[in-house]
Amino acid sequence: MIARDSFDKSRYLLENFEKALEEGWLDIYYQPLVRAANDRVCDEEALVRWDDPILGVINPDEFIPVLEAVNQVHKLDFYVLEKVLEKMKIQMTQGLYVVAHSINISQMDFYACNLVEEIDKRVEASGIKKNMIAIEIQESVVARYNEEIIRQLDELKQLGYQIWVDDFADEGSCSFFFQYFDCDMIKFSRRLIEQITISETSRVIISEFVRVALALGIEVAAKGVENQSQVDFLREIGCAKLQGFYFCRPISKEQIFDRYERGVQIGFENPDESDYYAVLSKVSLYDLSFAKLYVNKDDYNGVDGFFDTLPMALLEVNSSWMRVVRGNENFRKFITTVDSSEEDWKRVEFDDPKVKTSIIINSIKQSATDTKRYIVSDKTPQGKIAKIMVQKLVDNPVTGVSAVMFIVLSISDLDWQAQQQEAFERLKEERATFSRIAALTGNIISIYTVNPKTNRYSVYRTDKGLKVDFGPSGDDFFEVSRRNIVSRIHKDDLDKFMEVFTKQNIMMDIMENGYFTYKYRLKKDNDYIYVILKAALIDEVDGAQLIFGVIDVDKETRKDIEFAHTLSEAEDKAMRDDLTGVKNKKAYAKAEEDLNHKVNAGKAGNFAIIVFDLNNLKDVNDTMGHQAGDAFIKKGCEIICNTFVHSPVYRVGGDEFVVIATGSDYDKLDVHMDTIEVHNKKNQKKGEVTIAAGAARSTGHELVEKVFEQADANMYLKKKRMKREMEENSNNFYMPYKYD
291-414: which CATH number, 2.30.29, 3.30.450, 3.40.390, 1.10.10? Predict the structure, then answer.
């Protein structure tokens, strides 16, 4: 047994340090940092304890100074890094989310070795992403502006590692280092956090530090968090991450995995949601700077004190419900003044009859669908007018919910009934105007006025109006329209209508063209009629309004369809050869023009031109008559059509034909040309029609006439060879084609 009075603990630690590394006496513990917005583990800090077989558990405050004194602490820090990397890889293999881990680095490490190289080679070898490792240093290390240390930290940051500053403001503010040193996060000291529930001055100081850090793009964490009051305050001021015994003590990796097996873990944050919750966590409920909004003090009587600010709350909203994530003290007071409670706001269902007509609730719902800022007024149960601002901050990419900021700008004593009466008189005037318009035009079915901010609408229908499930007014014009149209629209028009009829598309068309218009078929009695939906944005006394009109255009449309059909038939007839039924020379000229446009645009693709000439048509006409000649032409055309079945055939002269081959006919061009040759040999013996054919392929750059010229030249070469072969082969005397 070692005598206490003669025992040199420092010497013992130094002599046994290497053995402690080898024997595993140094245990790594992990304390989570919890995201303020979702109470999930978003980071973990690695801490080390020396579990000595003789002395028992030794705290780092005892052995780290000893190792620093002899310049050996870097070995300990690299040992911790290696163990952390091992733990992260195990976590990945078990299918758990992996968050960033911080490693505490001593000031002496920067002088003992090439710190950047030693850290980087270990992380590179592990395969862990560099941004998942945070280098955590004491504020005192950077506050003294050591140029060499700052250089190495900057190099680590450039490589992708996070840099955290620990124990911020522990012994007085050293925020001066912000001017020359770029870090990712500062962590408030335990000593400062302890003052939250004691000192109003400390709360102001902490709030201002958070505001400065966020303005510089630096995240803020707090350690030593031990009670609910501290948690509530830090969340309200935008402190993004919280660490302390209130959430979890430092535990070993075995304890972490055991908690997951037993289902008692805090739970790691989904990395895909990290950016979303990072935005939510940084919002201070005592600072309007996120919205760049300036409010006159006269508008609200509670801005004299630092924390006596406008009622503000952070909401989460989707298409069906909303809930309050957190609100400041004045928001909670506001809720009680409108005969409500915090419980009522924990989750509000939008289809609840009590809230369906609320202008404020509908504005919150609408704000989640776009990035606009909405400022609306609504009546409180006490008859006062509350002016509210709502604005979306960010969307959750995993769940689809949106974070929305809610601010009460003012509460006034304006006469609600007077406002309602004014709105009623305006509505009567609108209806009178619509009646006059309908009387003049005669074909308007219905007119809708829609508030482009809230989507609330009013309806006017003429006596020609079709039956639709619209009341005289309602809350969401676009949602109601899309729901009601399903049973009224022609089934062939439904999908396209749903694609086109969105607020975003309509507003975009109006901004670009000045109006929106769309034609479709709507059910009337047992039939369908053609209607046009038109929309425009007009300025009125109380703001812009969307005006929609549904107009009966059935007679005009059916006349247009009939005319188009007749015109199409006439055009088709004008493009057809009367004798053979294939396309004629005019059609070929049009096809050539269209194909040239594609060539010039680089979109023609592969094509070939094949030119055909029927041999001896003149002899047939002269000896057998034109009726036999016509049959001769039709027989030759049939051979060409049956060979090039997937390409258009054109008769461009008495005995001349052209094919524009694409697709499979282009790919099989050589085979098709051989087929024509087989027909020629067979028909020559029988005294029937033979065809001289020449082809040319496009390289994708020449105009069609150039390709045609080459094909035509090839055809004439073929025609000469066929004539020479007939003259040389005296045994195969040519017999003129006999018309049956």
Answer: 3.30.450
Give the H/E segment covering residue 433: helix 416-441
| pLDDT on residue 413 | 61
Cα dihedral value 649, 650, 654, 655, nearest 10: -30
Rg of the chain taking only CA atoms, in angstroms: 42
| CA dist list (Å): 382 to 30, 338, 378, 408 | 53, 7, 11, 16
Handedness of CA 257, 261, 266, 268 (dihedral sign): positive
Please name the residues in contact with 569: beta carbons below 8 A apart, sequence gap of 6 or more: none
Give the Cα separation of 634 and 585 in Å (integer). 16
pLDDT one-digit tens code per residue, 620-647: 888 888 888 899 999 999 999 999 999 9
- Within 10 Å of residue 560's Cβ, how many Cβ atoms? 12
E strands, 68-204, are 100-104, 133-138, 162-168, 185-188
Q: Which CATH number fits domain 575-728: 1.20.272.10, 3.40.605.10, 2.60.120.560, 3.30.70.270?
A: 3.30.70.270
| 100-104 and 133-138 strand pairing | parallel
Q: Measuring CA to CA, which residue among 132, 99, 46 is closest to residue 268? A: 99
Q: What is the CATH number of domain 419-558?
A: 3.30.450.20
Residues 6+ apart with CB under 8 A from 537: 452, 507, 510, 544, 545, 546, 547
Give 608 or 462, the one with higher predicted confidence.
608
Fold classified for 4-279? TIM Barrel (3.20.20)
Q: Cα separation of 628 and 626, whole Å?
A: 5
Q: Could you state, in order of their start, the residue ranges of all structural domains in the chain?
A: 4-279, 291-414, 419-558, 575-728
Backbone dihedral region of 549: left (phi > 0), alpha (psi from -120 to 50 degrees) or beta?
Answer: beta
CB 260 within 8 A of CB 374: no
Estimate to the nearest angstrom the gap between the alpha carbon of 277 and the chain centroid. 17
Q: What SS3 state is found at 488?
A: coil
Q: Report which of residues 699 and 127 the model is more confident about.
A: 127
Model confidence over 419-444: pLDDT tens digits? 555 555 555 555 555 554 544 444 77
Render pLDDT for 442-482 as a digit per residue (tens, 0 to 9).
Answer: 477 778 888 888 888 887 765 454 555 455 677 888 888 88
End-to-end CA distance of the chain: 129
Look at residues 556, 546, 465 and name the one whose alpha carbon lies nearest to residue 519.
556
Residue 348 pLDDT > 80? yes
* Strand ranges of the sheet holding 444-450, from the earlier edge strand across to the other edge: 473-474, 457-461, 444-450, 543-552, 527-540, 516-524
Pairing of strands 41-52, 56-58: antiparallel
C-alpha span between 276 and 629 (Å, rounded): 81
pLDDT band at 739 (very low <50, low <70, confident <90, very high): very low
Amino acid code (one letter) for 517: T
Q: Which residues contact 241 (CB under 8 A, 6 or more apart)?
A: 33, 34, 35, 36, 42, 43, 185, 219, 220, 221, 222, 281
Backbone angles phi, psi at 124, to 5 degrees: -55, -45
Instruction: Provide the token pair at 595.
Output: 């194909």
Residue written as token pair 């000229």: 589
Q: Which two tokens stand for residue 35?
A: 């995201």
Chain centroid offset of residue 489 CA: 30
Mapped to the 3 state alphabet, what secondary structure does 137-177 carry?
EEHHHHHCCCHHHHHHHHHHHHHCCEEEEEEECECECCHHH
4-279 and 419-558 agree in CATH topology: no
Residues found in the chain: 740
Greatest alpha-carbon span in the chain: 139
What are the backbone angles phi and psi of residue 145, rounded to the nearest 5°? 50, 70
